[in-house]
Specification:
The chain is α/β, with parallel strands linked by helices and 334 residues long. It folds into 2 domains: 3-190, Aspartate Aminotransferase, domain 2 (3-Layer(aba) Sandwich); 203-324, Aspartate Aminotransferase, domain 1, CATH 3.90.1150. Helix content is 43%, strand content 14%. The strands form 2 sheets. It has a 7-stranded mixed sheet, with helices on both faces. Strand 5, helix 5 (119-123) and strand 6 form a beta-alpha-beta unit. Helix 9 (241-250) packs across helix 11. It is globular and about 60 Å long. The protein binds pyridoxal-5'-phosphate. The site of pyridoxal-5'-phosphate has 13 residues, from helix 1.
Length: 334
């Protein structure tokens, strides 16, 4: 990309800057619906972006869990959005940037790729890049990119000035220089050969964990993963996402409860859980250990269904024991 602004305070303000740069209140934006995997700031109803703009939303097919580009194209042609967001917050599959770019060109929309989740994978060569396809790229710097909480907006030269002005003075005041310094360190790390290996290993771990979970009867949205992220529909396990996530937390396994596409349950009590392999990869775990992680997840959920807190506590002890051999980088083993 020609231009980068590293000052957005976080991912949501970065996306809001895109609206300020290109849209007037009431203009049309198209993004993936939140329950389908999109982000709040892609025009969801409770977000300012859904309240102050006219949002139209695409999803994934119920049978495949994947984006249907015929649907996206038909919607874009009918609704003529000024901007189209691709990317999201619960998407386990590769984002087809060329397909979105083609549709955006056909309808004269600005294509914004929000790569918050996968920025580290892209930097490390483990996911295709939107550069050359998207007009604007927004990203947080704290997910797979493994930097401080912050964000960046990248763009072609054509859009640089309007985006800079939207960020400052449009939305923000003084720069958070401490964060910018942290982002510089993160980008330096991401440019090292070791980071390519990290990105590759995140994806390998996710693939191994997805396979092990499937073997244990977990129902994975889209049937698996191409990236760092796994979205599990727990309906068949007879437990909601929230009690499962809470039991897993007590068992020492951190993830979040999440809606799944076409979820019949409410967002605060959804059917699914969402997990990623970035943190355990940073600790040094490898695909060989993923069947054990899947086994713990299965056992903790079974224990939760039986209110067996002793079993949950014993899994937590096993998790602690394994991870004692894989300390946080920079911290001594306990
Ligand atoms: C795709 C995507 N965009 C934007 C954001 C917003 O980032 P932040 O929480 O830094 O505002 C997130 C955060 O989860 C995200 O997943």
């Amino acid at each position: 990309m020609d231009h980068a602004n590293v000052q957005p305070y976080s991912g949501s303000p970065a996306n809001l800057a895109v609206y300020l740069a290109f849209l007037q209140p009431g203009d049309t934006v198209m993004g993936m619906a939140l329950p389908m995997g999109g982000h709040l700031t892609h025009g969801w109803s409770v977000s300012a972006t859904g309240r102050w703009f006219r949002a139209v939303r695409y999803g994934v097919r119920q049978d495949t869990g994947r984006v249907d580009f015929d649907e996206v194209r038909a919607l874009a042609r009918a609704e003529r959005p000024k901007i189209i967001f691709c990317g999201g917050t619960a998407i386990p599959r590769t984002i087809d940037f060329p397909a979105f770019a083609q549709i955006a060109r056909e309808v004269g929309a600005v294509l914004v790729a929000d790569i918050a989740h996968i920025a580290g994978l892209i930097a490390g060569g483990a996911h295709p890049s939107p550069v050359g396809y998207a007009d604007v790229i927004t990203t947080t710097t704290h997910k797979t990119l493994r930097g401080p909480r912050g964000a960046m907006v990248l763009s072609t030269a054509e859009h640089a000035s309007v985006l800079d002005k939207a960020i400052f003075p449009g939305l923000q005041g003084g720069p958070h220089n401490h964060t910018t310094a942290g982002i510089a360190v993160a980008l330096h790390e991401a440019a090292q050969p070791a980071f390519r290996e990290y990105a590759r290993q995140i994806v390998a771990n996710a693939a191994a964990l997805a396979a092990a979970l499937t073997e244990r009867g977990f129902d994975l949205v889209s049937g698996g993963t191409d990236n760092h992220l796994i979205l599990v529909d727990l309906t068949g396990k007879g437990i909601g996402g929230k009690p499962a996530a809470q039991a897993l937390d007590r068992a020492g396994i951190e993830l979040n409860y999440n809606t799944v596409p076409y979820d019949p349950r409410k967002p605060f009590d959804p059917s699914g859980i969402r997990l990623g392999t970035a943190a355990l990869t940073t600790r040094g775990l490898t695909p060989e250990q993923m069947p054990q992680v899947a086994a713990w997840m299965d056992e903790a959920i079974t224990a939760a269904l039986k209110d067996d807190e002793a079993a949950v506590a014993s899994i937590a002890a096993e998790v602690r024991e394994l991870l004692a051999g894989y300390p946080m980088p920079g911290f001594a083993a306990s």
